[in-house]
Automatic annotation (TrEMBL):
Substrate binds at residues 64, 168. It catalyses: [amino-group carrier protein]-C-terminal-N-(1,4-dicarboxybutan-1-yl)-L-glutamine + ATP = [amino-group carrier protein]-C-terminal-N-(1-carboxy-5-phosphooxy-5-oxopentan-1-yl)-L-glutamine + ADP. It is an enzyme of class 2 (transferase). This is [LysW]-aminoadipate kinase. The keyword Calcium does not apply. It is found in: Cytoplasm. The keyword ATP-binding applies.
Amino acid sequence: MIVVKVGGSAGIDYDAVCADIAARWKNGERLILVHGGSGETNRVAEALGHPPRFVTSPSGYTSRFTDRQTLEIFEMVYCGKMNKGIVERLQRLGVNAVGLSGLDGRIFEGRHKDSVRAVENGKVKVLRGDHTGTVEKVNTGLIDLLLAGGYLPVLTPPASSYDGVAINVDGDRAAAALAVALKADALLLLSNVPGLLRAYPDESSLIREIPAADVENYLEFAQDRMKKKVLGAAEAVQGGVRRVIFGDARHGQPVSAALGGQGTVVS
Ligand SMILES: Nc1ncnc2c1ncn2[C@@H]1O[C@H](COP(=O)(O)OP(=O)(O)OP(=O)(O)O)[C@@H](O)[C@H]1O
């Protein structure tokens, strides 16, 4: 089983990702696709007059402050436009894909964090009314049913809180939790960069290999949102996934290239 997470940043070629996945699926490979949607969510939020607000925690992690209206815009884009766009592509390629959020069947479950500590103008503030959390539990029952029926699951945040409230969760870490729960052979984190760069944005500074035991030491190279990917990779390898690859989803055959060792391989 391979878990592929494709991001939602500008420049990602979803046609290329879906064509590659469809070919491999038809060849008998078992795959699950998880996707993001941050770039489009930012655009739609601006257009709807509720611009995105990103906050940085005292430990340096950036996240989207998700009030109720932001959560609804997030769902429109992630579960609507992005998810159905990917499912449509796969259906046109002859793959019977089913798109679900983590809320459906409580596939992704975690604690609802209603407040977040954020550094603003050098001061730490507590912001309330946040609808965020982290995936702590993956309920694989529905996924097992879909796979047994020959359907390719296409999953996206949000997740469900233990009380059934929709929460915005990081897609990379959700995909990592899924890969652990399914005992996947590999987790691919595909985005609009060649992999983890030692000197971002210099693409020639690609880090090709990271020993699994060392992955947390590479957090220092990741800025802002890339940190969550490195953290997700650490969680996946610590949970028993043998290979995590940060790969490029901008062109070519992104899944096959990553599985062939291009990008940053954590093993
Ligand atoms: N050292 C680094 N190497 C590579 N990319 C980095 C690095 N530091 C920061 N980045 C940034 O991290 C981004 C990838 O993370 P991001 O969460 O935006 O991607 P995504 O997975 O495509 O999005 P989504 O949240 O929609 O799933 C890159 O586009 C790049 O700008």
